[in-house]
Amino acid sequence: MKRHLISAGDLTRADALLILDTAEELASLADRPIKKLPTLRGRTVVNLFFEDSTRTRISFEAAAKRLSADVINFSAKGSSVAKGESLKDTALTLEAMGADAVVIRHGASGAPHRLAGWVQGSVVNAGDGTHEHPTQALLDAFTIRRRLKRGSTRGAGLDGIRVTIVGDVLHSRVARSNVLLLSTLGAQVTLAGPPTLLPLAVENWPCAVSYDLDSELPKSDVVMMLRVQQERMTAAYFPSVREYSRRYGLDAARMGRLPDHAIVMHPGPMNRGVEIAADVADSARSTIVEQVANGVTTRMAVLYLLLGGTEFPAVAQ
Amino acid sequence: MSQASSSVAGRDGLAVLDAEEIRRALTRIAHEILERTHGGDDVILLGIPTRGVPLARRLAARIGEFEGLEVPCGSLDVTMHRDDLRLRPARALGRTDLPVGGVDGKTIVLVDDVLYSGRTVRAALDALTDLGRPRTVQLAVLVDRGHRELPIRADYVGKNLPTSQREVVCVLLSEVDGRDEVMIGEGGRKP
């Protein structure tokens, strides 16, 4: 494992499997009377959130607390950032407080990478702009493996599993991280969406591209619906929400075209009725709530593997 | 200290227990467990990964043969509770598998291959506390090599093996290593 987790592309297959296997062992903690381990006692994890978030922040906080780390939550609202403090000065403040790990979400792509150059501790990317969200990809891979690989999953990749990622790929950090990680783990990934919502140079990504969702559904083991990120849209990418929903939204009729074992995923938050119909989101095939629970476990595995062992010698970096 | 003392470091070491002797030692321990626990009611055998787990299974099988009693058997990973985590890079976790019904009110017999500093057992006691409240906890080891660093002793010992701290004790079990043998090697190097 590297010292930071900035991009899902930095993870080798062995790294990714180590994280998933560790998460698998940690999952049993949820059934125990005491859901806490002493492993990171005395370590400090700072949650540095410049963008709004519900599940990622809570998930990281729960993960750090279950490993007995001290957690400092920082959100840009109500902090000195509102007075114009720069990322670097904020980082130096955290450094002075002795943060062992900084979990950062930022609206600018590349912010975690910059931060990694300024702080001694490990940096975990919790979403940067439209770039990456590696822990989401890890928890998605974990969910897919648990649902689709029966029996002992330890050490198993996702070889041969066909994943279709649908919708607003252009603005989605989840999609990029998932394409990188799932292809590392051996899955066949297809992106499906309107041409206007697929990024430039998508042909260089390790995945296939399709503009026709209906033809992809019967050959998918996993359908991952992406949120239409209206807050990031500066132009008209599709004529109307209703048209988008009709061509790329997952409703009960479309779900019926999936193979019987297939699962429906969504990273949340959902726009019910836009990219996913309410009855699909609440169906037995949907793993949306499971993904949240798996998020805590996976993030515990990441924090344990980054912070649980020897401290990295400061000079080596 | 299974990690520090039982790896396959000293292949050219001196054999101290062969397969037959290991079998006899486990048979004796199984009898002792039955005797000390008055017939083995409410006993759970918990192996500490890696090699404690097959040892616990073997003991459970012996007890089954002797008394026709099905003794629940599981594994207890202690990695997250170790006190030497920060001395080495983060390591992969072993499996914790508890028998249905949990550990509350039960007699737990922890099973490990080598008892050395006692730190692994200390970690196991902590891990166990988080899982419930057993009535008693006992310890069975195949080899006790001395050099305790904590006030911990074993209730059942396969063989007491006087060693120097420079030596490496190496337990091989057929489930993990393909054959049964305990060896002692001139170490100096700890894996």
Topology summary:
The complex is a heterodimer of chains A (317) and B (191).
Chain A: H1 13-26, E1 44-49, H2 55-66, E2 70-75, H3 87-96, E3 101-106, H4 111-116, E4 122-128, H5 134-148, E5 162-166, H6 173-184, E6 188-192, E7 208-210, H7 213-216, E8 222-225, H8 241-248, H9 252-256, E9 263-265, H10 278-281, H11 288-307
Parallel strand pairs in A: 1-2, 1-3, 3-4, 5-6, 5-8, 6-7, 8-9
Chain B: H1 2-5, E1 14-17, H2 19-36, E2 43-47, H3 52-67, E3 73-75, E4 107-115, H4 119-131, E5 136-144, E6 156-160, E7 167-172, H5 174-177, E8 181-186
Question: What would your notes on this structure say?
Answer:
The complex is a heterodimer of chains A (317) and B (191). Chain A is α/β, with parallel strands linked by helices and 317 residues long. Chain A has 2 domains: 8-133 and 293-316, 3-Layer(aba) Sandwich (Rossmann fold); 134-287, Aspartate/ornithine carbamoyltransferase (Rossmann fold, 3-Layer(aba) Sandwich), CATH 3.40.50.1370. Chain A has helices at 13-26, 55-66, 87-96, 111-116, 134-148, 173-184, 213-216, 241-248, 252-256, 278-281, 288-307, and strands at 44-49, 70-75, 101-106, 122-128, 162-166, 188-192, 208-210, 222-225, 263-265. A 5-stranded parallel sheet of chain A has the order 7-6-5-8-9, covered by helices on one side. Chain A has a 4-stranded parallel sheet with strand order 2-1-3-4. Chain A is globular. The model of chain A is unreliable at 313-317 (pLDDT under 50). Chain B is of the alpha/beta class and 191 residues long. Chain B has a single domain (24-163), classed as Rossmann fold. Chain B is 29% helix and 25% strand. In chain B, strands 3-2-4-5-6 form a 5-stranded parallel sheet, with helices on both faces. In chain B, β2, α3 and β3 form a beta-alpha-beta unit. The longest helix of chain B is centred in the N-terminal third of the chain and has 18 residues, at 19-36. The relative contact order of chain B is 0.24.
